[in-house]
Design a protein that fits this description.
Order of helices and strands: HEHEHEHEHEHEHEHEEHHEH
Strand content: 15-25%
CATH class of the largest domain: Alpha Beta
Distance between the termini: 68 Å
Helix content: 40-55%
Radius of gyration: 23 Å
Oligomer: single chain
CATH architecture of the largest domain: 3-Layer(aba) Sandwich
Structural class: alpha/beta
CATH superfamily of the largest domain: Bordetella uptake gene, domain 1
Length: 328
């Protein structure tokens, strides 16, 4: 019979390899040709979700394909981030995830199902959101100098709230406590909202939280701002000094949000996603929407973002160890 035998089989296999080799680059070259899923590992309405929706909408314009937000909350961002790590590495599932899921979780959770730098490919650091230190209106201090003097005069009697044990606000408070040499007591809450409510209600003296969460309360005069845990002031609160200005440069605490993809995603696909994201962040409408909420846009390279993840992992691991925070 014609077309049988080892020689014919070899020819068919060889032809298949040739076809595959020709198709693969073309597929990457045509990226994207269908909707992209952007996983946000937190519920709708928070800073992570807002940033993803604003940047994602502009990316959609630039890429010519829908960018669909998929909220998958749980375990401090770990569940949604794990879904990105385990997705097909084709660029059609990416994630905008947080400092907690990419850097902090490794030190504070018993088992994280992915390695941030082995199972994920960093694309770019999208935005940083400074932690803002505020005090309740009944606290007789309106400056860092007064607050430190007050805390040192009554060790162990003042409390600081957080959105939960092991969260960025918790670690920011511990870093402040260690660096300033003060004895203040951590009070964890289940989320930012109840923590803010108890500071407003004067049940607890102070809290570090993401700037966008506290901004409305500061503007309404319900709490007193003391300092931003960042190197630079922000335009939404131009009169609030940074910890660096106030003599505590080590107390730099910023929540941050970065775009990642599955580790094996092709380099040219990563390059297209990177360009679309950075170009989106440069647009005036994206800048205006996010800057007004206290976000500082970054847009670095994949290599720079990878180095940043590693440095933040090391930094917060040291803080957790010094504060004797155990994994949960």
């Amino acid at each position: 019979m014609k077309g049988t035998g080892p020689l014919f089989s070899f020819a068919r296999i060889f032809a298949s390899f040739i076809i595959l080799a020709l198709i693969t680059p073309a597929s990457a070259q045509d990226f994207p040709n269908r909707p992209i899923k952007l996983i946000v590992p937190f519920p709708p309405g928070g800073p992570n979700d807002i940033i993803a929706r604003v940047v994602g909408a502009k990316m959609q314009e630039l890429l010519g394909q829908p960018v669909v937000i998929d909220n998958r909350g749980g375990a401090g961002g770990v569940i949604g981030t794990d879904a990105v790590a385990k997705a097909a590495p084709d660029g059609y599932t990416i994630g905008l995830t947080s400092a907690g899921a990419l850097a902090i979780s490794k030190s504070l959770q018993e088992k994280v199902p992915y390695d941030s730098l082995k199972d994920l490919k960093p694309i770019t650091l999208v935005a940083k959101v400074p932690e803002l230190l505020v005090v309740a209106n009944n606290v007789p201090a309106s400056s860092m100098k007064d607050l430190l003097a007050l805390a040192k005069s009554q060790p162990g009697k003042m409390n600081f709230a957080s959105s939960g044990s092991g969260s960025m606000p918790h670690l920011a408070g511990e870093l402040f406590k260690i660096t300033a040499g003060i004895d203040i007591v951590h009070v964890p809450y289940k989320g930012a909202a109840p923590a803010v409510n108890d500071v407003i209600g004067q049940q607890v003296e102070m809290v570090f939280l993401d700037l966008p969460v506290l901004l409305p309360q500061v503007k309404a005069g319900k709490v007193k701002p003391i300092a931003l845990g960042s190197r630079e002031r922000v335009e939404s609160l131009p009169d609030v000094p940074t910890t660096s200005e106030l003599g505590l440069p080590q107390v730099e605490a910023e929540n941050w949000y970065g775009l990642v993809a599955p580790a094996a995603t092709p380099a040219d696909v990563i390059a297209k996603l990177h360009k679309a994201t950075v170009d989106a962040m440069k647009s005036p409408e994206v800048k205006d929407k996010l800057s007004s909420q206290g976000a500082i846009l970054v847009g670095d390279t994949p290599e720079e973002f990878a180095a940043y993840i590693q440095s933040e992992t090391d930094k917060w691991a040291k803080v957790a160890k010094a504060a004797k925070i155990t994994p949960n």
